[in-house]
Amino acid sequence: MKEQHYKNPIPTVDTIIQKGSQILLVKRKKEPFKGLLALPGGFVNEGERVEDAAKREAKEETSLDIELVDILGVYSEPNRDPRGHIMSTVFVGKISSNNKVDALAQDDAAKIEWINLEEVNNTHFAFDHQKIISDYEKWKRSGRTFWSSRASMLL
Amino acid sequence: MKEQHYKNPIPTVDTIIQKGSQILLVKRKKEPFKGLLALPGGFVNEGERVEDAAKREAKEETSLDIELVDILGVYSEPNRDPRGHIMSTVFVGKISSNNKVDALAQDDAAKIEWINLEEVNNTHFAFDHQKIISDYEKWKRSGRTFWSSRASMLL
Fold first, then answer.
1. Residue B110: exposed, middle, or buried by beta-carbon count in 10 A (0-12, 13-18, 19+)?
2. What is the model's pTM?
């Protein structure tokens, strides 16, 4: 099998969840980027669909059930994660109406933070999540999708 | 490192290239699905961005330079490929204006075929490519993105 002879990027997922003018972030409990803010997300397990991984990771890290709205993009710049070549499918999600609790940090998240979209440019994020959130602002206007090398000035 | 302890899906890419009322397909030279039609695509190598893999595979299999327009979806149903859990980022692309040649089968492609979108429902495709092309028709109307389990009737 071809895939046994070659190495491939490892897939992760991340989700942007906006409520009002804020988006939901988690403060990372572990390295890499320990202490920095990141979108809720994590590794996709073998046998698990990416959409299910996105919902599972959001639930594990923030206690919230979410629904997925669209795919924002797929980010796979080889140096975006210091652990190796790790790619991310990034979803736009929303909080399900059936949640009985507010967001509460768990698992790999030390803390939950709601950040105003206006503060994004002045905040230090883990990985390439600042670019991703910046692309999300463009997505809201144009509906276009994104990837690491997309020249996004005009979108 | 967490990713060393778990198994993860292996990433591939596929691209939908429409010209007039037809889309570009390749007849598979090898198993699985040898002899069936598939979108141009293949495995993403470690160190390679998904967008670059999509352009490389289109070039290798059809001899054409392409440009990427958008991401249609990410398909990761665990049983979509009999070789194992293989996920695909599917791009919508177009033929670059700088091509000096027509599509010509190469590499893993035994033959190039241009299929009318109207014939898609009556054609037997490799993998889940019939569903992907059906989602593409919806994408053209709605601009929405897709994944394996998305209930797409209303999109």
1. middle
2. 0.93
Residue that is written with structure tokens 């890499």 in the block: A32
Q: A65, A3, A15: which is closest to A40 by C-alpha?
A: A15
Instruction: Determine the 3-state secondary structure of A48 from DSSP.
Output: coil
Q: How many CB atoms lie within 10 A of CB A56?
A: 15
Residue B18 tokens read as 């429409």
Write down the ipTM of this complex. Answer: 0.93
Size of the A and B interface in Cβ pairs below 8 Å: 125
In this structure, which amino acid lies at residue B125? F
Verify whether the Cβ–Cβ distance A149 to B49 is below 8 Å.
yes
Name the residue of chain A whose CA is nearest to B68's CA.
Answer: A150
Contact residues for B130 (Cβ-Cβ < 8 A; gap 6+): B120, B121, B123
CA distance A101 to A154: 40
Rounded to 5 degrees, φ, ψ at B82 are -70, -10
Compute the distance between CA of residue B62 and CA of residue B58 in angstroms, rounded to an integer.
6
Q: Tell me which residues of chain A have a pLDDT lower than 50.
A: 1-3
